[in-house]
Amino acid sequence: MELLGFHREPENTRFTDAAVAYVLVALWHEGRLLMVRVRGRDCWELPGGGIEPGETSRQAAVRELWEESGQPVSEEGLRFVGFARTALPAGDGPRRRVLYGALYTAEVSRAEPFVPNEEIAAVHWRDGDEPLEGGRVQTVDEYLAALCRL
């Protein structure tokens, strides 16, 4: 994924050049950032994923965080930060798919235990920029997390 820009627009903004198609959540606990390791990608990233039909980006953020990490956060507990404009490779060739992702942040007072699932192999509460075993850390996600450090 390539970060093309970051926009601090209102949460209900719709863009003419691409859809708001996914969400990311920077979740903090005692100053540490939650990272998830996605199976098959061997990298660490922020929890998040696609917005389902009929779902708001805020609802998707709550759902994706729960599905990927088992961490419960209410819609009201999320703070909207802005939109990441990103490009993804579109198969073979030079074409890229441009999408917007809604970025949210929150803090939890208690970290719930994690149970590996079909999508996520592990989670880690990261302190600073230490390297993580099992894959590289997505640099785009590191940058976005820094924008919403509590």
UniProtKB/TrEMBL annotation:
Residues 14-150 form the Nudix hydrolase domain. It comes from Streptomyces carminius. Pfam families: NUDIX (PF00293). Keywords: Hydrolase. This is NUDIX domain-containing protein. Its cofactor is Mg(2+). Belongs to the Nudix hydrolase family. InterPro entries: Nudix_hydrolase, NUDIX_hydrolase-like_dom_sf, NUDIX_hydrolase_CS, NUDIX_hydrolase_dom. One of its GO terms (molecular function) is hydrolase activity. It comes from the Bacteria. PROSITE patterns: NUDIX (PS51462), NUDIX_BOX (PS00893). Gene3D superfamilies: Nucleoside Triphosphate Pyrophosphohydrolase.
